[in-house]
Amino acid sequence: MSILSRPLSWFLAVVVWYAALLYLSSQSQLEAPVPEFMHRDKVMHLTYFALGGICLYLALRFSRPHFTHARISLFVILFCASIGALDEFRQSFTPNRSGNDLGDWIADTLGGVVACFVSPYLLPLIKKLSR
């Protein structure tokens, strides 16, 4: 079995993703490595949470192949929404950060939704690379 099809690899990716989120959201000054554009922060939230959601989706798919897409998707979306809410609350205690931004939380949750649409298309590619 390849490292790409091992559930533990994807669960570890979720842990690393979450650790990076904790680090990033604890920074008082955070400069994004992308050019300035309208709603940049919302796009970055959505993208970051979509990546975490993809890792969680794949971890669950490989560890629980009998789970339906709907069941895994529900879990991933609830995970992204919960972690997003906790992160927004936590940021409210970080100097120079606003926190409790409803728009950021919505973008985080939508990132989970995007992950659920993208992940099934990644599965065949990952299985092919695992051989």
Automatic annotation (TrEMBL):
<keyword id="KW-0812">Transmembrane</keyword>
<dbReference type="Pfam" id="PF04892">
    <property type="entry name" value="VanZ"/>
</dbReference>
<feature type="transmembrane region" description="Helical">
    <location>
        <begin position="67"/>
        <end position="85"/>
    </location>
</feature>
<feature type="domain" description="VanZ-like">
    <location>
        <begin position="42"/>
        <end position="118"/>
    </location>
</feature>
<feature type="transmembrane region" description="Helical">
    <location>
        <begin position="105"/>
        <end position="126"/>
    </location>
</feature>
<protein>
    <recommendedName>
        <fullName>VanZ-like domain-containing protein</fullName>
    </recommendedName>
</protein>
<dbReference type="InterPro" id="IPR006976">
    <property type="entry name" value="VanZ-like"/>
</dbReference>
<feature type="transmembrane region" description="Helical">
    <location>
        <begin position="43"/>
        <end position="60"/>
    </location>
</feature>
<keyword id="KW-1133">Transmembrane helix</keyword>
<keyword id="KW-0472">Membrane</keyword>
